Amino acid sequence: MDKEKKKKDKRSSKSDIVTLKKEIGLLSACAIIIGNIIGSGIFISPKGVLEHAGSVGLSLIVWVCGGGICALGSLCYAELGVTIPKSGGDYSYVTEIFGGLVGFLLLWSAVLIMYPTTLAVIALTFSNYVLQPAFPDCLPPYIATRLLATICILFLTWVNCSSVRWATRIQDVFTVGKLLALVLIIVVGLIQIFRGHYDALRPSTAFEFRQDPSVGQIALAFLQASFAYSGWNFLNYVTEEVVEPRKNLPRAIYISIPLVTLVYTMTNIAYFSSMSPEELLASNAVAVTFGEKLLGMFSWVMPISVALSTFGGINGYLFTSSRLCFSGAREGHLPYLLAMIHLKNCTPIPALLVCCFATIVILCIGETHNLINYVSFINYLSYGVTIAGLLYLRKKRPNLVRPIKVSMLVPIAYLVFWAVLLGFSLYSEPVVCGLGMVIMLTGVPVYFVGVHWKDKPKCVYRLVESVTYIGQKVCYVVFPQEDLSETEPLTASKATD
After folding, report:
1. Burial class of residue 191 in the structure, from the number of CB atoms within 10 Å of its CB (0-12 exposed, 13-18 middle, 19+ buried)
2. Cα–Cα distance between 102 and 98 in angstroms, integer?
3. Interval 373-392: pLDDT, tens
4. Left if phi > 0, otherwise alpha if psi is -120 to 50, otherwise beta: which for 196?
5. Confidence class of residue 17 from pLDDT cuts 50, 70 and 90?
6. To bridge 181 with a disulfide, which of 114, 202, 305, 314 should be the other Cys (CB 3.0-4.6 Å)?
7. What is the helix (H) or strand (E) element at residue 424, kind and residue range?
């Protein structure tokens, strides 16, 4: 009886701790990965892949290989995620391995531009597709799309502030919804194939090139496919909220990446069963064109599916990007108020509000697509730096406990692909990549003034304390209590490094 009582007391005391709650099980973990990967990309980007690949056959090979590259990267992130079990993803790993400055530069570019801009683009895609039926003969009004996008962002911010469980349930439901939409496309496409409509897929015609393929064009085709696969690393941003991360983090990766690769490849095969390459290249929204050709009176299903897909994408990006702000503040790289969570709901409300505000500002600026081009280079740069960090950590701390240890060939193969892709990006778009680097490097003086400089005037500290105090009162937040029950065994060393 005494033992049972002690166990109950231990469980109740653990549930009373004010900390990020472990409420993300295996299903929700898979939903976060799949939901963040499958946004509006698969409904729109096949055009770009086909344009650069030059043939149907090569474009399908690019889609399959793109999934394979993501699988390599996600295996590396699985090792890092259970070796350094902190929320924050790339930022937390790079900070731990290379130090504060490199980590801060990734954090600076992500919080300042990358995630707010991505959120704004997805929210605008959502509002455009929702409003399109009301404006069939023209584009929806500029103000209407911005207003609906803002309402969507505000609503999902409120949901994420209210409950982690609500946010993950929304992610689960909308991930299932977008998978069903893609399954509908695949099933309709397979019916077309069984009826004999697969001229574009015959080997004799699938590899007919509109132009001679070059390494540069193939690299750009991979870049287009990689955009559609982006988001595969987002579960690592919420590691501390995953139930049994040692088991569920790698399991979710092993389930989600092959599933997305299969769905993406089959969806493209379905597109080519009903559209010629010329028709696909002429379409600005491939899924909508597909629906108009084959679904008849039910063609409205496609724009609704894209809208639901982007709604789930917004929720996923808000959920994960707020944890990045939270992790940065906990390391002292952002104001400490952003490292606080609600006393009862245990949600990072200040971090969520900052993400919401930054996104609305980007929506008001308007030039979101130009900004996303500048920072996409930084996104891929961060992937490479993080996976290079895995190799460096293997050499620097060989005795660190690694519940998962991938073959050295996996990170090396990923880095070779990454270097080729980045090199051709620099060659093809030097101005865009250069501006991306400039945005990142503006964080250097900010780091030395805001983080590295410790002896600031007392008035600065008093101002920060006042703002923090007011923020705590308004948001009803406190610093989380640390629960070391799962992180200690993972980060312990077998021997002194």
Report:
1. middle
2. 6
3. 666 677 778 889 999 999 99
4. left
5. low
6. 305
7. helix 409-428
